[in-house]
Amino acid sequence: MITDSHCHLDYPQLYNQLDKIVRRAEYNQVKYLLTICTTLKSFEKIKLIIKKYKNIYGTFGIHPHETEKNMHVDSKFILNVKKRYNKIIGIGETGLDFYYNHSDKKKQKKSFIEHISAASQLNIPIIVHSRNAEIDTYDILKSENKNLNLKVLMHCFTGSKDFAKKLIDQNFYISVSGIITFKKSAELANTISTIPIENLLIETDSPYLAPLPNRGKDNEPSYIIHIVKKLSQIKNLTNESISMKTTNNFMKLFNLAWHENKIIIF
Hints:
By secondary structure, the protein is α/β, with parallel strands linked by helices. It has ten helices and ten strands. Helices cover about 40% and strands about 20% of the residues. The strands form two sheets. An eight-stranded parallel β-sheet has the order 1-2-3-4-5-6-7-8. Strands 9-10 form a two-stranded antiparallel ribbon. Helix 4 (about 75-80) packs across helix 5 and helix 9 (about 225-235) packs across helix 10. It starts with a strand and ends with a strand.
């Protein structure tokens, strides 16, 4: 049983054939999926997806690229959205992206902190995007974590070994994507080898970052089996062990539990 902790099922490449996408995922033992919000528009589709499919959950948040146009989405706004949807189990995708700088850095930071505040009040995880912003991302998370005891998932981790250690020291979780299968990712694989399995989740980030041997194609949740295989090699564990341990980590982080073959949301 596998859990894809980060995918974008609202994107047209997936949404327009979602029944087939979900069936292929189930065929490859992908039991649960978390579809991630990036804009207010994307959330409109996410609401429909989580209502239709019992095994798909969602998040709400504004991607750092989009903060310039969505500064009105503050913690109060997020709290009002969450209280209407039980299957929204995380806040994000939020964070900092200083690579493209589609939004002003100060506005990205302000939005990030508003998302953190909402996640803390709700006691649910925050899904963090960080690109070319390790220092600022960590400084904000460490500062906010002092008083809030945050639940944090660092999505699609490609950072340094030092950054990984700092995150683990804060008891945060780290998610790895198909990037670990790429031929030029030996350094990343080495970093991942140092992260305790108890802190790891897996994701596709589909429709992006298709793992080998599907690189260049639109990614989808069923391809996560290749990430499981690679991670099992890195951690010297069986595929079954990786699948179960990362799923258990997902359940723990997102306040979920089994009961009579059903998931209970606390």
